[in-house]
Each structure stands twice: as structure tokens, then as C-alpha cells.
Amino acid sequence: MLSIGVCALALALGGSQISDAGQSRLDAGRASIVAAKHAPVEIIRGPDGTALVTGEATYTSTNWSGYVLPEFVTRQLYFSAQATWIVPTVVFKNKPAVSSNWVGIGGFCETTQCKNVDQSLIQLGTTQETTSRKNTSYFAWYEMLPAASIPTALVVNPGDVVTASLSCAGNCTGAQSWTLSMMDETTSQSWSNVFTYESSNLSAEWIEEAPSGRHGILPLADYQTTTFDQSMINGAGADLSLADTIVMRNPHGESSNVSALDSTFDGFSACFGPHKKLKPCSFIPLPP
Fold it and tell me: What pLDDT does residue 35 have?
């Protein structure tokens, strides 16, 4: 059985806080995180080393599934992104596994053929991990590669509706100033902080991911179905009809498919599959 190392981390709380007065910080017992990276995209490639085209999506990956707006398609750079999703419930399937929902900028292919992948990636999201039938955990985090993922003080639970955003201030060059924020719409708690990071600004993405550990990509947890909606980009509603789609075939045998877009082209669902063959996926709206 593959072991997922769960490392207890001391939170660096300077500046990271629940914004609602009177709300408590994340207790030490919940300050854990999978020893894993939320890595740049790992594209499945053909014999010539370029992205393999299968007809099921624009790209097939071993670690990402979702929608991506890349500069090489849209001819614009990205300075802010936002999404709302439901924290999915994960189900134990005979081995430790993990999945993550996130919104971010960077970390995608630099060209259509994906010969090079952007190694800058600033992102924030929620992770769902299961190590036994009785042991599951859910937490919010942010990450700025190549630094490690850091849990935030925001407590999240399965079924919560979460809105996450990241935005670059000013002219967004050099040592850029980024504001990262997350709101749990279900509990009305929120978290926000400002960081310095140098991003390529080459892509914006809304992703269901299988993170990577020391020995490669981890098994994808059975998250059933999750929905990303109300997506925004550069301060306006995102038109994901312009986006590239990604489906996942995880090396441990699981898959993650994506639905067609909703009627406003800013939302989609992702669907877990227990085998590498993709499970059909339909859009499920967020709760009213």
C-alpha cells in the first residue's frame, strides 16, 4: 500500500488570520498537510515529445483535470483569477489518496505542443485526503512554487461552498504583490494575505488535481463530483469557451473527467473515475 506521509506543520500565522472578528484560528490538530506538491501540469506526450491528442480533451494529463486559459490561445496575460466550488467529500478506496481543488496562475504549457511547461505557479485551494475508512481530512492552503504548500487558518468541511481569488497589484512586474483570499460561503469565515511573488502570468486555471509526493504523483482520492463556477479572470467573468480542457489519467489507475460548460461559460463539473477510462461527466449547478 502506498503510504502518504502526513506532516504536522506549525502554521506561520504572521498576517494570516480569520477576518471575521471573534472567529478562532485553525487549531493545531487540523494543521496537517500531505507531504506533496501541487505541481505544474504533467502532460501525456506522444512519441515525438509533444502533447498527445486523443479527441477526449485538448490535453490529457497525469495530475490535472479542468479548464485553462493560456496566453498562447487568448493572447493576454493574467493578473487575477477567481472561482467558487463545493468542497467534495472523499471516499476511501483501499489505499491512501488525495485530491485538491484550486484556482491559480501559471504552471501550464508555454505553447500548444507543450514542449516546455511554465514552472511558476501561484495558487490556492482546498485539499481532501483519506488514509483509512475512518480517517479523512479537509483543509485550505496556498502555494507559490517552488516553495511548499502552506495551510491557511480557514477551516473547511466537505459540502462547504468556497470562493477563492488571487490578484496582482499595480503594473504586476518584477517582484509582484499578490493578494490571496478565500471565503467559506457556508460558515461566513474568510482568510486573506498579501505575498510577493514573480509570476509569468501566462495562464489561468481551474483545476482538480492529484498532487505529487516524493516518489511522484499520488493516487487520486474518490471525490465523486465537484463543481467550479462563477469563474472570473482579470476582474471580469471568465469565458471558458476559449479555454483548453484537460482530463486526467492518474498513474495509479484513477481518472478525472470534466463536463461541458454551463450556460454562462464560467462553470463546469469534474467527475472522478475509478479506472483510467473516463467516466461520463455532466454539469451540476452549485446550490442556490
Answer: 57
Q: Tell me the whole-structure pTM to 2 decimals.
A: 0.89
What contacts 102, CB < 8 A, 6 or more positions away? 38, 123, 124, 125, 126, 164, 206, 207, 209
User: Mind listing the pLDDT tens digit for each residue in 141-158?
Assistant: 999 999 999 999 999 999
**Alpha carbons 266 and 81: distance in angstroms, whole number:** 12
- Cβ atoms within 10 A of the Cβ of 14, count? 7
Do 103 and 82 form a contact (C-beta atoms < 8 A)?
yes
The DSSP element (H or E) to which 180 belongs, if any, is strand 176-184
Three cell numbers at 83?
Answer: 472561482
Contacts of 130 (CB under 8 A, 6+ apart): 90, 91, 92, 96, 97, 98, 136, 221, 222
β-strand 176-184 against 97-106: which pairing, if any? unpaired
**Rounded to 5°, angle at Cα 92 from 25 and 102:** 50
